[in-house]
């Protein structure tokens, strides 16, 4: 690694103090060569005549070096010259804090420190006839210098390895930022990373790119690098963005590098001629023109060995086009670093005063962790009172600082016109949307890529577009300044702005001939029931709760790709036939006044049609048969539908959401049987997802075998009259199968054995189910839920790969001995299995089983005696893994994780932890409740942004251990609530309540846990406070 930060105020990087007779031609020679490869400037005493006293040149060299290396060897103390050097180094260490590295070459450090052994004999001989004060100075220097941690070559793997280690250590110590860049928080990490890429010890010429968005600190990093490296190069230049004529580029460039006025008379191609033998350092800042690079730094062979060319840009494609593969991406700082940056600018400190903490945090968030924004906003708040900060906050929240806008605007202005349009689309409408959706809607697959390459947006791992909030504000400000005729997209949102500021009337959109995207969110219910005009080039019309009864007669939808009118008051869309050749998606969900869908004859590209909850819809036009590309059709809740087209082409259909099961469809031959069976014409070859949940009339889906090679998910839950499962032998890609609450279902066919990709099978509350096939092994099955299958008598043996097995409230009589084959089982829930009599001791062989529940299995015999427990003591791994179990059957094990006394309640909460916003269910463990208390439940109350709601569960445990969206059972209050507060502040309150028979609930304990922000995460974690368990503040003596 290079000595990147050699300060030009110091003459030398390293001064070595050594005994020439011991190390000059061996160890020192190799070390100097390693220093030279790393461009470390080392002082050598060639030509200095040795005398009895240290030469002035040596004293000067020691004082002008940044690091002194003392190489102690057997004959080091034989030279008064060396000992005097040591004293001078000692003085520089004490008075000036010079860095000192000690190296012990074939000597014992303790002998050097104590002047004993062979080294001590040599030292004593040198001290003969010397004055006492001189001897004391030598001795003190030896003690203090050897006390500094050093390198003992006797302990290293080899001398060569030790040379490399010392050279690297010295190089790293020389890396420190220039004082002029000390206020740039985190500069050290940037410089260290860049020095690793530059690899100054290499003799080859290198080009390196620094890439990142505007305002991220690229130029600052480049300047810091240049200020620390230029002393190591004979020729160097920092070249800012050049606005001059192309003919002047080379003259300006060469004049900077060579340090004199260069005139080339308009000739091109002279850079290579003048610099090809010179070692140069060149930093080109803010490069946006490929020709600029080609003219000045066309190839690395133009420059001498060891040259380094650094190109700073925000255009990735520019670097790729110039074959610059060595790249350093400048990323946004963490929130902690961002807060420190802000505080440096605002307070001159690394952290805010206590009463400014909340305000400083909000400003850092508003700046989006962008160093430019943090610096500008921090400076504008410097030396202001808290009241002044509070007065300025609305301005920061709603607008963009002029200095920040000026800097960021440059990036926008350099874009091509089409890319500028894409930038504005994303800033005003599509920030956070899927990139595939935006490309499809705008029919532009290039614009997003260009913005990514220029660091104006990024694509998340999930494929979503992400634009920095300051760039988003810039785009909104630019769009607001445009004239009405040039506006491309508008978003009206009453959730954030008052209707007075954003009025809409009958003629609001007149004159907006180029408007392509219109999004209206909120309550504009005071509008008239019609519009005079809608722009003809609209691609997106998204109007939430639209108050219109019909779209304008004059509206031409030639370009319309998506029509979304959820919750509208529309009675019909338009009159007559409208050209809909571009339409791909139509969503009318919840438009309860819609009576008919207009002619769709031209909608040949329609892929998605959502008419769910259109409760007034009476008929669906036969013209829908022209939608040959239809993939998704949803007509759930269309309760008044009276007619349906009889000839649908379903070749492209992938998603079918209860779309044609409706008991109000008389008079059509094949639809009349839909209440019992799907039509024989049904050919769902490409169907990916089939949902028929809640159809109480359905008895079976189809006769025979269907080709279902694309089917991934099937949900027939709550079909109370479903008597048999269709033949799924060809549904070989099925992953999830839901059959819960199919109470008429008696058996499952053996053809289910073909579902080798099935992961999840839910058959909860199938009360008629008596048996499962035994001759199958579903090799991918992870979760099987048969809870509530009250007629099921035998233990399910359909898979050995199950991890989560739920058999609560079944009639199973035995846990068989083959349970030992369920080697992946981690959760076994069998509470309230009242017919359960025997539990095989082979359950002890399951070494990763973590949770077991046999609560209320009152028919269980004593499965093993105390002696038999001892017989199975070799299966101790089970004891170590089970985290929760409930039955006195386990008492004999006498283990801290297993013992749960039937009559007592534990007052401890163990392992309470949950990342808010994830779909994992929180786990808590609680002992059995006292019988007198009835039922113990858990309530959770949280403040924070949550994606799931959790409810309390009976008998003291939470969650379904693998089941997402699990619901509470019994009399359990569901009080887990989520509100959109700032993510930094979260708390979780846990309450323990007791329900007595026929009495109201009584709170018997509570505990509040505060969320803490994890480094590198955008979500807080509810964590356990301290060590051990979380004690409930109990109000009930029963749980003391």
TrEMBL record:
Catalytically driven reaction(s): NAD(+) + H2O = ADP-D-ribose + nicotinamide + H(+)
UniProt KW keywords: Hydrolase, Leucine-rich repeat, NAD, Plant defense, Repeat
EC number of this enzyme: 3.2.2.6
Coiled-coil residue windows: none
Ranges for region Disordered: 997-1040
Organism domain of life: Eukaryota
Keyword set includes Translocase: no
PANTHER family: ADP-RIBOSYL CYCLASE_CYCLIC ADP-RIBOSE HYDROLASE-RELATED, LEUCINE-RICH REPEAT-CONTAINING PROTEIN
Name recorded for this polypeptide: ADP-ribosyl cyclase/cyclic ADP-ribose hydrolase
Lineage, opening ranks: Eukaryota, Viridiplantae, Streptophyta, Embryophyta, Tracheophyta
